[in-house]
């Protein structure tokens, strides 16, 4: 077992050039095996387990294997991927990324803010040692099927236990709910006034835009949106058209829910 | 003709006021973001600091006589204790304070490196579950500090960028928003002390 205590990660992250070139691997499914070490039967069973986990607890766990970490340290790389994929529900930040690369034989569990209580760095380290590295030791014969299956099993177990204790989910971070509520109210007001008369709607849009701008910033943008919305609402009503609102995206694909990551977890 | 002129003038003044209002609020929000980011760096440093006593007592359980090593750690810990109490809004624009933060951190890392190296001579300590968990926790906090610092610098860059654009730069100057300087570690200083434990 290699214990590495390095200063490199914090040094690397403090230079803005570290943000320069990063092409994020595509999030295709919950299991993203870009080095082809997970056979399809295992992939299916892991997908099923993780899908079940998300349905029952809302936690989003994904697996990634990549041929290399694009010149960055594996901590940096996995954090960037986890952030880009935005695993975990917005506000709950209950995402987790299990990542492996043969380039340096690195493994990492990157834990979202919301799961840090259940999966502390110490626990993540234990999972790395007892579940992953037990079957896929550093510089040794690797049984990825057992390694990933055991890792996913243990992580699911911990998350289920945590969820059983507190079904409402972890910490509420992220966008301010009050701000969202106020902006929605303002939008509705603009639409209603706009339906009465386009110019009145535009003026109302201007005023509401100012109010929204001072709350959430981007005042000019808010004002423009408000005025346009007021005018459009009024004009559309006069034209007498019908607005058909279509529903959300399709079913079946796996997308990140907008969760946040702080850099916690463990790896080697 | 004259009445139109007045209305146009009023309209322009109103527009200027609105834009100023919006810019000012944006700058306030961004400045808070920068301060908050530096505060987060301090939080993570404190969190790392709080792990140390447990680590020291675990090592003492196996290697009680390594007095000088423990003394170095205690001293480094005290320095961290001081810097994490500084006001984050002061750190946000002050390169000297940021350097102080960094030096305290580097001092702690150096003393910790020596402490962990002690374990090399004590196989029972190396195998101790608590010790191993603490090492992961320490590595985790180190990564978090790095991430927090990176985000603080990014927030500072965004603020500076916004505060330099027109018309926000006029508002910034009028309202007294200072540029948020940040300290980036020069490439020459990025030497890496790495402590490796290979399983024997």
Reconstruct the topology from this structure.
The complex is a heterodimer of chains A (268) and B (200).
Chain A: E1 3-5, H1 8-13, E2 31-33, H2 40-57, E3 60-65, H3 74-85, E4 95-101, E5 106-112, H4 121-132, H5 144-165, H6 177-196, H7 198-216, H8 219-239, E6 261-267
Parallel strand pairs in A: 2-3, 3-4
Antiparallel strand pairs in A: 4-5, 5-6
Chain B: H1 2-60, H2 67-83, H3 88-91, H4 95-118, H5 123-127, H6 129-164, H7 168-175, E1 195-197
Helix pairs in contact in B: 1-2, 1-4, 1-6, 1-7, 2-4
Binned, the helix content of chain A reads: 40-55%
Show unreliable segments of chain B.
191-200
Largest interface: A-B, 42 and 49 residues
Mean pLDDT of chain B: 85
Instruction: Report the β-strand fraction of chain B as a percent range.
Output: under 5%
What general outline of chain A do the C-alpha atoms trace?
elongated
Describe the structure concisely:
The complex is a heterodimer of chains A (268) and B (200). Chain A is of the alpha/beta class. Chain A contains 8 helices and 6 strands, in the order βαβαβαββαααααβ.
Provide key terms for this protein.
heterodimer; A: 268 residues; alpha/beta; 5-stranded mixed β-sheet; elongated; disordered N terminus; B: 200 residues; mainly alpha; rod-shaped
